[in-house]
Amino acid sequence: MRLIVLLFIFIGIWNYSPASNNLVSQSARDIPLIASVDVVIVGGTTAAVSAAVEASSRGASVFLIAPRLYLGEDMCATLRLKVAEDRILTTSLEEQLFSNEREITPLKVKATLNQALLDANVNFVFGSFATDILWDENHIPSGVIIVNRAGRQAIAAKTIIDATPQAWVCKMAGAKSNDTTISEIDFERTLILPGLKKDEPLYVRRKLTIPMNDLTFPSFAKAEQIARKETYSEVQLRASESLFFIPPNPIVCNKNATEWTENSETTLEFFQPKGFNNLYVLSGSAGIPREVAKDLLQPAALCSIGKKMGEEAYNSSKEKTFATKFFLHNKAVATTEPGDVKEILTGLRPIHENENVVRLQESSVPVISDYEVVVVGGGTSGAPAAIAAARMGMKVLVVEFQEGLGGVGTLGLIGKPWYGRKVGFAAEVPFPHENIETKMEWYRSELKKAGGDIWLGALGCGAYVEGNNVKGAVVATPAGRVVVKAKVVIDATGNADVAIAAGAQYMYGEIEKGDIALQGTGLSSRPIVGNYLNTDYLLVNEMDMTDVWRTLVSVQQTKFSEGEFDAGTLIQSRERHRVVGDFVLHYLDQITGRTFPDAIVFSQSDYDSHGYPSSDYFALLPHDSISRKQNHPAPGGTCYTPFRCLLPKGLDGILVTGLGISMERDASAMIRMQLDLANQGYAAGMASAIAVSEDKSLREIDIKELQKYLVEKGNLPEEVLSQKDSYPFSRQIVQQAVIDYGKANNPEQAGKPLAIILTHQETAIPLVKTAFLNVQGKQKLQYAQVLGMCGEKDGVETLIDELRNLKTWDEKIFQGSMADFAHLPTPVDALILALGNSGNERAIPVLIDLANKLDSGVTLSHFRSVAMALEKFACREAAKPLAQDLKKEGMSGFAITNIEQASTQLGNDGKGPNPVKNASSDKRTKALREMVLARALYNCGDYNNIGENTLKSYRNDMRGLFAQHAKMVLEANERILETGSNKTNKFKGKIE
What is the pTM of this model? Predict the structure, then answer.
């Protein structure tokens, strides 16, 4: 039964109350309630962890909300990692950190705090900010609303501990701060510089005084940029991501600085905001003298206060009950603007099934700034987009959650390009050796030189939309959630986060087509020296915060055990969510050399896909002894991307750039090279500037004008100015392609002819049928496979005969050396898939016979081909053989449902001589094998509920890809049972 928790709007003394023209409306909505706990702690500092552990150890239920993608931001973000030799360690957590050494690494901090929370059974989430306070009927704080990449969620709590450095949560609750006039603040930034010895770097603290207009987030963001400019050294190996300072405006507490004595640390009255009995401030913003704050802000020095606070939070929560109704101290706003705030509201996971919700009535969100172009995401495409728009005179803001710009090429630690065209803007982008600091500073300084603004540590979490026109971005900062208006929003999240929140249709892997597929992801260590650690041992959905959590925790713990200095925070994703745009780019468009009238990028790559492909095209590629041993045997080359791929269908005022553009998943390998994505982003920025300067919508701009700019810049060849859509090809070209394909012996020879056939089937299939009748041997078999794959029955007997004569499975064909599961379909797989696609039921006995021959020694591609062919027929007689396959030794039990399972066998950091032979096989290859068998079994009617039970185990998998796919399969069957529709049809069709 669904529980609705009502939330009304109360207009009270704590309202944020700017003029109404600085507010926008937010319609009524339901916020998923993900937890009800005794204590919620906002902040991931060492003191916050100390409080969480103590409260939990005494019996309280605790939820900790960490703003970064790690714990210990008070030490790690500031690089304040050393304590004095004579420091007395007063808590067990301090002992764990410093008992053996007084200067520690960032990763020791992160791993120690992770383990402390895990051991204490404290729930925690990374990458989240508090945005609102929940109140009960007596106007007592009773929880928080948080936001992260999965959207917003609510957490009910009896006690709230604010461990943010500037007491942002207390201020949201209406707690007063001291009325101190601030015109400047003394900051400190730590640099790591080369030492006299290679393994003994120097930690140097730079002190600087920066003028401050006020104490808002934009002012601190501006101060951060000033500090980076003033302190940057060309030889720096690393620099702190955040400035250290003593908060100048402490919260007014029950006791304050003038009452402090030597024994005051024994009371928490200095840490409890005045007028609140269940709200605490655990930072330098407490009501203590500033000199005392300076002492307590030494590394982990607040842990003793945190421990006392955890005990007190437990004691006070025992006497309280959970609220049954919640209120929000916010107000609806009368406005003539017809817009609304759009966001994702599915809980921490896309598979969220907790039906408890907090219902918000109509309210408002403050507008904090107004720009011409807002770029959300400052990565591989986002930073170039912002630079391009700023160079063309636009007022530009880039919003980036990570500590710097550049994305996978900087903080992603893939510091050198693979393929791509080093032309135009991409030729400006540096790829320095040794470390990432130079490149991050280049992006930063280029954008600032052009007049752009930068907000680091801020998260794009929604869109402000009027009708179908995006008018701004919703941005979460440590201080709360705001709207930044813009004439054009560029979604450069790489995941289409903002566009999806605005309502864009999207694709992810092959979920929407009923299959499970994704390129491999990684997360590298972060050494002091080095900028290239290309890894591939994970599968991660970055919009699933449980998946992100298990990734970060498991990798941080593993890297610490390996003695690493630090772990990265940017997940090395090669494939993410993709919008459905005005045009969906296909891999076959790329291979045929299709041209477009609106091309804005010219890319170049081999087919560098870190996973198995989805298109039937790959199964139809013939192989010889050379291609079977190549690293990337599938065809690559050069290709164009049309501007329409950046335009989400049905939305105006927004562009998507990076990996989130409109394309089928197989097309991503050809366009995702860093150099080409830089030029793609630059084109997006220029397009935005043209639209703004000419007061046109993005679809109304003169594409030829844009192309001329890009040709002049060197991004595009001049030939694009006269190009048109080259489809459809002439009958003569198609006829020659049919002939050439029949003679082809390997992917290089067959690539383009086969692509022409499959993209021109109406013309090609009659020609293939004729050719099939007039040839023998290998050519006849290749044509039969094409016919079967295209749903024709003419060559079925040829395919059946070939499979009946099969003596043994053929060997796997690798698509890249890094991903253990990256196999191309083999020639045997082509026969199987062609039979499945033919729809001819004479194939069923042959396919069942093959299912009986599967075992744990057979390569993944054969499991996929047999399972997918059988589920095309949804034949019940296949259920028992498929169930028997799952019961064979080593064939099941690979779901990951706890952090212990997630933390084992993470051996591929791109270091080994042959990373394919690493232990991540259990986490990916074997799990994918089990999933595809279970799905086929379930869709063939199941046997002893083995398929259903396996899918249910994966529905609870911590890996988002597996959980989402299992949920989709189970729910699709439920819908079929409800509607009585034909089960065999549910996977047909595609997004256009």
Answer: 0.95
